[in-house]
Amino acid sequence: FSTDVIRNFSIIAHIDHGKSTLADRLLELTGTIDKKQSGKNEQVLDKLKVERERGITVKAQTASMFEEINGKKHLLNLIDTPGHVDFAWEVSRSLAACQGAILLVDASQGIQAQSISVFHVAKDRGVKIIPVLNKIDLPAAQPERIKAQLESTFGIDPSEALYISAKTGEGVADVLKAIVDRVPPPPEPQDISTNAPLKALLFDSFYDRYRGVISLVSIQHGVLQKGDKIMSCHTRKKYEVMEVGIMYPEETPTTALYPGQVGYVACNMKESSEAHIGDTLHRVGEKVEPLAGFKPTKAMVFAGIFPVDASDFLKLEQSIARLTLTDRSVTVQRESSSALGQGCRLGFLGTLHMDVFRQRLEDEYDANIIVTAPTVPYKVVYKDKEIIISNPTDFPDMADSIGKVKEVQEPIVKASIIFPEEHFGEMMDLCYSHRAEDLNHTFLDAGTGAQTRIMLTCIIPLSEIVTDFFDQLKSRSSGFASFDYEDAGYKQSDLAKMVFLLNSKPVDALALVVHRSQQDLIGRAWVKKLHGVLRRQLFEISIQAAVGKKIISRETLSAVRADVTAGLYGGHYERKMKHLQNQKESKKKMKMVGNVELPQEAFFSILGNK
Ligand code: GDP
Ligand code: MG
């Protein structure tokens, strides 16, 4: 293989703009998969059950195909990227192995928030961008208008845009030709002999039950073959290569991987933690400079996960460990709660990431869990140190620590929202009610005479968007608004810890960090919810929300005089015993806070767990 017949490319797009459908068509057109396989509109690259169900791509996947173009057989490596804002990091690492990207835009919807963010990631990476307008079969498609949008928003020359329907296949062959004609081949290595020093960029990995960790690599220099003794620049661990090959679209062994190629390597790696994304693999005994790596992932949302049945903890912990093998962007720590027992505190890239992980735990590991309210990493600044807090329980009580704590800060993000002009008022309201600042807006298709779309940017606390922001955005814009955000650091903020007390005993798993301007509202709402889900007991229960020593809200649940055996006539002994036994059983599942019983369902309904 000479590198001039290799092309490494990605498809980048806003969610639902047709990336998976186009990937299927490309694999079909090149004979990599047959029509029957993809005929049921099943997306070949979306492997996980959650991906199929939600129609989103979570993990980047890779596939190679061969096609004769311009009279030469080419090897085209497609590196799939996830479309959701939570996974922007995966987009960036996938692009590191590419020289080109197809920017796919739905011709009936136009540029959306993630079209913009993925465009910028691609531009920063310096890859060649091919603009492609999809869904031209739809009557609502307005490719001319979208072309103008591409020009005004990204400065893309309209003559470069291709028109396709990934659904019908129209124009898809031109996409393949454009990839070969416009995307540069991977850089030519100075020395292509098999004994040239090896440099392989590790850009993804997955776990295989039989072969252990399989790493996806992009060969930058040298040749990688079975039997090679290789080493990681990062861990200095040594491995013997058992198998190399390409994703065609599943793992297909080859004798070697050459410079510019993208493929997989199985080398008896036991733990996924050994496969560092961005690591450079080289041969034992050869000295190489490591390739420029990646920014490490940063957990933005944390939540506690507890087993419903406390005796399931070890099983849960094991399931979480297995699942994090396939998704290393999740961070895990043990956590214990007096109300919920042993559990784990997990860190995620965003709330969708959290939902997907939770769903996979339930689907693939049959886990029965309680997930606490999501929280963001707060920063507490002391005179001599700064601490990041990922669990509200650890947040200092400001009243006790005056003098010691200099200030508290919360993470903020720069948000961009794109929506049709008619929703301007609602979108401004939404932002203001979520503590947004620095609001700015621009018109996306100024001067085209068409119905105008607005791009609104603002700085907003991350904690505001991990709760109901996305749902409200969708409902207030009738589904027409799209949204994306990027990290914008930390900002001083007037925050406080809110705790909930049952007969004066705090329920640790329900602690929250709130902004003081919202404490009354949140306190009242949660106390009301608790009041609604608690069962009455033989004594009165006081339910309180407190910030520091101050009670924000209070409700009382009156006592009930319930003798469970009272309704049973005649003192039928056996029956009475059975009833008491049942009650004992159900008590076992009950969490106790002081003398108050907190039923499982209470946690479910308060925390919004299905
Ligand atoms: P992804 O989220 O970018 O991977 O998008 P998908 O490939 O899953 O496509 C989203 C939806 O758009 C699916 O229902 C597809 O069937 C549909 N779709 C994709 N391409 C086309 C197209 O060219 N025309 C039409 N009419 N629908 C399409
Ligand atoms: Mg998809």
Automatic annotation (TrEMBL):
<keyword id="KW-0999">Mitochondrion inner membrane</keyword>
<keyword id="KW-0732">Signal</keyword>
<dbReference type="GO" id="GO:0006412">
    <property type="term" value="P:translation"/>
</dbReference>
<dbReference type="InterPro" id="IPR027417">
    <property type="entry name" value="P-loop_NTPase"/>
</dbReference>
<dbReference type="GO" id="GO:0097177">
    <property type="term" value="F:mitochondrial ribosome binding"/>
</dbReference>
<keyword id="KW-0547">Nucleotide-binding</keyword>
<dbReference type="InterPro" id="IPR000640">
    <property type="entry name" value="EFG_V-like"/>
</dbReference>
<dbReference type="InterPro" id="IPR009000">
    <property type="entry name" value="Transl_B-barrel_sf"/>
</dbReference>
<dbReference type="InterPro" id="IPR035654">
    <property type="entry name" value="LepA_IV"/>
</dbReference>
<dbReference type="GO" id="GO:0045727">
    <property type="term" value="P:positive regulation of translation"/>
</dbReference>
<dbReference type="GO" id="GO:0005525">
    <property type="term" value="F:GTP binding"/>
</dbReference>
<dbReference type="InterPro" id="IPR004161">
    <property type="entry name" value="EFTu-like_2"/>
</dbReference>
<protein>
    <submittedName>
        <fullName>GTP-binding protein lepa</fullName>
    </submittedName>
</protein>
<dbReference type="InterPro" id="IPR013842">
    <property type="entry name" value="LepA_CTD"/>
</dbReference>
<dbReference type="InterPro" id="IPR035647">
    <property type="entry name" value="EFG_III/V"/>
</dbReference>
<dbReference type="GO" id="GO:0005759">
    <property type="term" value="C:mitochondrial matrix"/>
</dbReference>
<feature type="binding site">
    <location>
        <begin position="134"/>
        <end position="137"/>
    </location>
    <ligand>
        <name>GTP</name>
    </ligand>
</feature>
<dbReference type="Pfam" id="PF03144">
    <property type="entry name" value="GTP_EFTU_D2"/>
</dbReference>
<feature type="binding site">
    <location>
        <begin position="80"/>
        <end position="84"/>
    </location>
    <ligand>
        <name>GTP</name>
    </ligand>
</feature>
<dbReference type="GO" id="GO:0005743">
    <property type="term" value="C:mitochondrial inner membrane"/>
</dbReference>
<dbReference type="InterPro" id="IPR038363">
    <property type="entry name" value="LepA_C_sf"/>
</dbReference>
<comment type="similarity">
    <text>Belongs to the TRAFAC class translation factor GTPase superfamily. Classic translation factor GTPase family. LepA subfamily.</text>
</comment>
<comment type="function">
    <text>Promotes mitochondrial protein synthesis. May act as a fidelity factor of the translation reaction, by catalyzing a one-codon backward translocation of tRNAs on improperly translocated ribosomes. Binds to mitochondrial ribosomes in a GTP-dependent manner.</text>
</comment>
<dbReference type="InterPro" id="IPR005225">
    <property type="entry name" value="Small_GTP-bd"/>
</dbReference>
<dbReference type="InterPro" id="IPR031157">
    <property type="entry name" value="G_TR_CS"/>
</dbReference>
<dbReference type="Pfam" id="PF00009">
    <property type="entry name" value="GTP_EFTU"/>
</dbReference>
<feature type="binding site">
    <location>
        <begin position="13"/>
        <end position="20"/>
    </location>
    <ligand>
        <name>GTP</name>
    </ligand>
</feature>
<dbReference type="Pfam" id="PF00679">
    <property type="entry name" value="EFG_C"/>
</dbReference>
<keyword id="KW-0378">Hydrolase</keyword>
<keyword id="KW-0472">Membrane</keyword>
<keyword id="KW-0496">Mitochondrion</keyword>
<dbReference type="Pfam" id="PF06421">
    <property type="entry name" value="LepA_C"/>
</dbReference>
<dbReference type="InterPro" id="IPR000795">
    <property type="entry name" value="T_Tr_GTP-bd_dom"/>
</dbReference>
<feature type="domain" description="Tr-type G">
    <location>
        <begin position="4"/>
        <end position="188"/>
    </location>
</feature>
<comment type="similarity">
    <text>Belongs to the GTP-binding elongation factor family. LepA subfamily.</text>
</comment>
<keyword id="KW-0342">GTP-binding</keyword>
<dbReference type="InterPro" id="IPR006297">
    <property type="entry name" value="EF-4"/>
</dbReference>
<dbReference type="GO" id="GO:0003924">
    <property type="term" value="F:GTPase activity"/>
</dbReference>
<keyword id="KW-0648">Protein biosynthesis</keyword>
